[in-house]
Design a protein that fits this description.
Layout: H1 12-21, H2 27-33, E1 48-49, H3 51-70, H4 76-92, H5 94-102, H6 110-128, H7 133-145, H8 151-157, H9 166-185, H10 191-199, H11 218-233, H12 244-255, H13 261-271, E2 279-282, E3 287-292, E4 301-306, E5 312-320, E6 328-332, E7 349-350
Antiparallel strand pairs: 1-7, 2-3, 2-6, 3-4, 4-5
Length: 353
């Protein structure tokens, strides 16, 4: 707020600098932070925590930050600070944070959105595994920066229905090392952060890339599992998103027995069979979005978003899936559901929640 009202910008450079810093603000965030003087004091208004609005703002900030890192205009301190915000956000309302990741349908800056989702889930998992603070933070930083070597390609591939060209395939295989080079360029020397980025496509037994390591480090493996989870959960031009329950089952089959068994088990316990933000079909024919965890993994609290004929409800209806009429009968891909309501509103809570 350094510019006074009515000031005329004197040069294109000033304008460019403002645009670079982010000239625009989400209206909801603005209203939360800069209420008019005549409004009642904040204590009198129940402050609301809107995880979807905050996530949208974080995604735009991260997109700018990652591009600045590539151009060496940002540094590791800024990234560490951002990682701290991600951790605070993830812990404030765990179920809402997971739901916001799975329900993020914005087309712009998908690469940043994917990295943000991975960082949020990595933060929750590392905390649940009881890792020390420093190690948790390093993993979150790695998740945020793992795709620095292919940000623009990642965005393009979302709309590309044809197979990767040889040049694209080469860039994909080289991107862990390219990301590492970008981190070196801005002075990142945290070995856990660096190795997790380098190894996030390695698989035990030398089945991954680029180094074909036999025994990759645990941090990189946790990052790989989370990366695969969100990649499969999001739509691309060449395939539909998979229901999260299906992805969790597949990860269990692929990685649930070997050295990653404890990491997969932690992932399953953390997000459940039916994670918040995923869609399910109920015994009465309605389709609902999983809202909160329930008494058991198989009985989450669901908010029905369509009736039995598939017609969107104007207002979601809460259903207790432990009752016979509302038992979950199957999962539904997010692209198969018509929703007539802003689902983000379901998770808006009072700030003290």
């Amino acid at each position: 707020m350094l510019l006074s009202k009515g000031l005329v910008l004197g040069s294109q450079t000033q304008l460019d600098e403002l645009l670079e810093r982010g000239l625009y603000v989400e209206l909801g965030l603005f209203e939360t932070h800069f209420r008019s003087v005549s409004a009642p004091p904040l204590e009198a208004i129940e402050q609301k925590f809107d995880p979807f609005l905050i996530r949208g703002s974080m995604r735009l900030s991260l997109n700018r930050l990652l591009h600045s890192l590539i151009d060496a205009l940002a540094n590791s301190v800024q990234l560490l600070e951002f990682a701290g915000h991600v951790q605070d956000y993830a812990n404030k309302d765990v179920e809402a944070a997971i739901a916001a990741c799975l329900l993020d349908r914005q087309e712009e800056s998908r690469a940043a959105a994917h990295s943000l989702s991975c960082a949020i889930l990595c933060s929750l998992l590392a905390k649940r595994l009881g890792w020390p603070e420093e190690r948790q933070r390093s993993l979150v930083c790695a998740a945020l920066t793992m795709n620095l070597g292919m940000l623009d390609l990642q965005q393009r591939l979302l709309r590309q229905a044809t197979p990767l060209t040889p040049a694209q395939l080469e860039q994909v295989h080289a991107h862990p090392e390219a990301a590492l080079a970008a981190l070196t360029n801005v002075g990142v020397n945290d070995s856990i952060w660096r190795e997790a980025v380098r190894q996030h496509h390695e698989k035990p037994g030398g089945k991954g890339y680029p180094q074909r390591l036999n025994e990759p480090a645990e941090e990189g493996q946790l990052l790989r599992l989370v990366d695969v989870f969100f990649a499969r959960a999001s739509a691309r031009a060449d395939r539909s998103p998979l229901p999260p329950a299906q992805i969790v089952r597949a990860l269990f089959v692929e990685d649930g027995q070997g050295v990653c068994a404890s990491l997969v088990a932690c992932l399953v316990k953390m997000i459940g069979i039916y994670p918040p933000g995923s869609f399910v079909k109920l015994a009465n024919g309605e389709i609902g979005v999983v809202f909160r965890n329930g008494e058991t993994q198989k009985t989450p609290v669901v908010a029905s978003v369509t009736n039995a004929s598939g017609i969107p409800l104007m207002q979601p209806v809460r259903r207790d899936t432990s009752r016979e009429a509302f038992v979950i009968s199957g999962t539904v891909g997010s692209d198969k559901v018509s929703v007539g309501y802003d689902l983000g509103k379901l998770w808006i809570t009072n700030a003290h929640h």
